[in-house]
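Onboarding guide, step 5: your first structure request.
Type a short instruction followed by the sequence, for example:

Predict the 3D structure of this protein.
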Amino acid sequence: MQGRRFLSCVGVYCLLAVACDKHASEAAQSAAATASASAASASAAASAPAPADTTPTIPAPPDVADAPTDATRTASGLASKVLTPGTGKDHPAPTDKVKVHYTGWTKAGQMFDSSVTRGEPITFPLNGVIPGWTEGVGLMVVGEKRRLWIPAAMAYGEHPRGGAPGGDLVFDVELLDITPGPKPPPVPEDVKAAPASAKKTASGLAYRVLTPGKGTTHPTVTSRVVVHYSGWTPDGKMFDSSVMRGQPASFSLGGVIKGWTEGVQLMTKGEKARFWIPGSLAYGDKPTRPGAPSGMLVFDIELMDFQ
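The system replies with structure tokens like these:
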């Protein structure tokens, strides 16, 4: 039985960790409508036979349980094998968008997702999916079809939430197209430490204005803001960027790391500022969130709008 779509939504590293808003009034209306409809059809549903599952499935490959000896293995634990050679020459970079067809199975041979059965390929930034895909599809060229044996640590883990499949997974992937991604913003010249000209707050947050804003009012902790941002560790490694994704982030200012909650309230609409956020105001020196960067972090933030 075909499962839900996972690759374009599950496993994406969302820096700000903001949950989707649930509007109580909409939920109440939906619940009321559902209850009414359920009451009206309860007796008929009780006597009617369950509809047959007509969702098409693709049989698992014979080597689904374990990668064969002729598969190529990487240091990360990923194994792969070319099924159909490609016609392209270039490999996608992590920041590129790729268009693919794919089917996924568990090691037991159960298909849990397939763009092939839906008849619709998907397009996504390569660095916006599970690590096994980012690495595995990065080995491919356009026109190639490859089988990936992805260990649980590079997929959704052994016991994932949200209905995602657990354990080691196997995917057949066909790379249809590559769209080059935007160039990364330059690493700040003062990424290692806040300069003497930076302003500092009592909490330890340091910042300096890069581009003055046009507004005069500031967002509050309850405001919903729209921003573009990029984040680096002090050694100059960029770990997240809405600029690279080509889409601003929107979130409640009270639902993010403390350094953001405090810092963005100092800004006005149209302003761009650089923040040096100590670990205590970010994810800590030893984060508990998987994949979260540790220690002091540096962000360039542009406040585009707020309400």
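Each response can be followed by summary notes, for example: The first strand starts at residue 72 and ends at 73.
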